[in-house]
Amino acid sequence: MPSLTKIVLSQLLLLATVLVFAGPGVAQNYKILHNFDGKDGVFPTTGVTLDASGNIFGVSSGGGAYGFGDVYRITPSSNEFFTIDFSSPKNGGGPHGPLAIDGAGNLFGASPEGGEGCGTVFEWKSGETTLHFIPLPATAGCRPYSNVVIDKAGNLFGTVEEAGADKDGGIFELSAAGKFSLLYSFNAAIDGSQTNGLAIDAAGNVYGTNFLGGANNAGTLFALGKNGTFRIIHAFSGGYDGNGPDSIVTIDSQGNIYGTTSGGGISCGLIYKFDKTGVETVLYAFDCVIGNGPEGPFTFDAQGNLYGTVVGRGAYGAGIIFKLDPSGHLTVIHNFGYYPDGYTPYTGLVQDQAGNFYGTTSLGGTGICGQEYYGCGTVFEITP
Fold this sequence. Notes:
Blueprint: H1 4-18, E1 30-35, E2 49-50, E3 56-60, E4 70-75, E5 80-85, E6 96-101, E7 107-111, E8 120-124, E9 132-135, E10 148-150, E11 156-160, E12 170-174, E13 180-185, E14 193-200, E15 206-212, E16 220-224, E17 230-235, E18 243-245, E19 250-251, E20 257-263, E21 270-274, E22 280-285, E23 292-300, E24 306-312, E25 320-324, E26 330-335, E27 350-351, E28 357-361, E29 378-382
Antiparallel strand pairs: 1-29, 2-3, 3-4, 4-5, 6-7, 7-8, 8-9, 10-11, 11-12, 12-13, 14-15, 15-16, 16-17, 18-20, 19-20, 20-21, 21-22, 23-24, 24-25, 25-26, 27-28, 28-29
C-alpha cells in the first residue's frame, strides 16, 4: 500500500483541477456517520466491524487524545461516538484492523508499537470502557501491521512484518490460553513479504496475501492450514493475473477466495477469484477511468453481487463504491467527491442485516487536521 504522504500529495494535485468544477457526488442513499477531527482519530485506513446489535467498531491508527490512535464505537440508534484512546507508547500505538469479534461481542486487534518493543495484541471486552493489552514477545515476531482473526476455539491469528532469520515477516498465534507461537516465517523470495492481513474459514484455515516477493516478485496468495501446513496458492506474475495483491481476501461458503491487486490486468488493478483447486478467474480489470486501485475485503448480497471500493478515479477522482454482478457487469453506486463527502476509501465494506453497507474514507469530511489536508476521514453508510 502506498504511504499516506504520497496519497495526500497525489490527491491534492487532483483537487487543483477537480474541486472547482465538481460537486461532492453524494447520493440520496449515502450519509456520513462520523467526521474525524484529529482529537477523536485521524485518517482511518481500515474497515469497520459490526456487532449483533448493529453497533459499528473500528480503529484509527493516529490522532486521539494522546496521538497514538484509538478504537471507536458508533451507536447508530443514538448517533453516539465513543472512543478509547491508546494512552501511552508502552501499551501500544498505531492500531490496525479491522477488528475481530467473538460470539460474546469481545473485540480484538493488534498494534505494531509498544509492549516489549514488538507491538501488542489488545482486547476490548464487551460492556467495558478500557482495553486489555498483551505484549507480543520477540519470539512470535514483531510489528503486527494488520488485523487478527479468531477461530471457534478462541485462538487468535495475525501477521508480523518482522520474523525469521531475514525478518521477512510471518504468522503468529495467540492461543485461548494466552500463549504466543510463531507458526510460520516467510521467505520473501518464495513466500512473499508485506502481508495485507488474514481471513479465516469455518474450518479454521487462514488465508492471506503478500504484496511483494514470491517467485515473480509480484506478490503471493497463501494459506496456512489448521494442521499447520503452509502453501502458496498462487505467485502472481505481474501480468494479466495481477501484480501486488493489496487487500484482505474474502472467502465464500464454497471455499472460493476473492481479492484485489493494485496492478496487472489493464494496469490499474483487478478483482480475482480462486476456486478450491487454485484456478484463477479475473472477474474485473479496472481501466484507470472507472477506478484505480480496488480494495477489499468484499461483501456479497443474497443475489451473489459483490460490493467493494476503489481508492482513486471515478467521476471526481476521489474513488468509488461499486457493485459487480455474477455476469461481470460493474455498476458504480457512489462517486466520492472530496469535501465534505470523504475520499480515498482504503478498505472494503461490511453489510448489516437490513442491507446497509458501512466503510471508511481515509481523507475528506469536515474535520480540520491542518492546512495540508482536506479533512481527517469519515465513517459512512450507504444503501444501494
